[in-house]
Amino acid sequence: xxxxxxxxxxxxxxxxxxxxxxxxxxxxxxxxxxxxxxxxxxxxxxxxxxxxxxxxxxxxxxxxxxxxxxxxxxxxxxxxxxxxxxxxxxxxxxxxxxxxxxxxxxxxxxxxxxxxxxxxxxxxxxxxxxxxxxxxxxxxxxxxxxxxxxxxxxxxxxxxxxxxxxxxxxxxxxxxxxxxxxxxxxxxxxxxxxxxxxxxxxxxxxxxxxxxxxxxxxxxxxxxxxxxxxxxxxxxxxxxxxxxxxxxxxxxxxxxxxxxxxxxxxxxxxxxxxxxxxxxxxxxxxxxxxxxxxxxxxxxxxxxxxxxxxxxxxxxxxxxxxxxxxxxxxxxxxxxxxxxxxxxxx
Length: 346
Description:
alpha+beta, twelve-stranded mixed sheet, 11 helices
């Protein structure tokens, strides 16, 4: 199940689908990461693996740039297959398809851009493993390239942390060529606009934080404290149908992950108080016009902006304000007497 069906079941019951990710499911991710590493040569493994404590684990971005880790273009066929298997184990089918479409759009940009198109490379997405995959100590992994940053942190005995998560799409809607009609992040855009347009006049006055779109996400890399106070209209002031629309929108982000992880994120959001979440909008409410929205509460900070390239270029990010890169989980882990791990052997 996906979207509103799963979200409705989780939220209506008031009970977590899983308080913690089951050991077998955590093992599946660790197994896929180990299988990937086992396909690599000594040199490739040296590039792909870092110590868990290495500062590189926190070095995320969504722009086209050189990255640490092992890019797809430098992987043998078996390693590339194993890399995709790790993504499939960690994401839902819908989330994997979105990630694959983001990568596909690099090829579209290569064809569209007269100058600089050769810089677009669907194989320039790098996988990095931090620490030793398994149940005994914290570890994590990242898949990252232009418009995609997937960051997973696994701490013994704790839920899996999956933020920050970034998906972007340029073009947001492909208007020509073999991929014509592709909208990689269509539901994120459409559900947000549906929620905003369903506000009454009084709610809109509180919801709108700027007449023009903001031009990009606000809390990006290096700006971890850019947004500390929620803005916009609080969910406490929404009616039942409006709340359901907001739940569907949040669920669209959570359900990019495997179902057990998504259920845990939705449970935490509900436990922290849905009424404490705020929804904010900037820019036009009309499709095809520049716009921005934000969902901000104790356990969630989601932003989407579509301004660049005549409002045909989407950036979206999902943070947990206290638990990006598993910060809260690691704090609890070490507070219970677990010392920091030594550097993993390469």
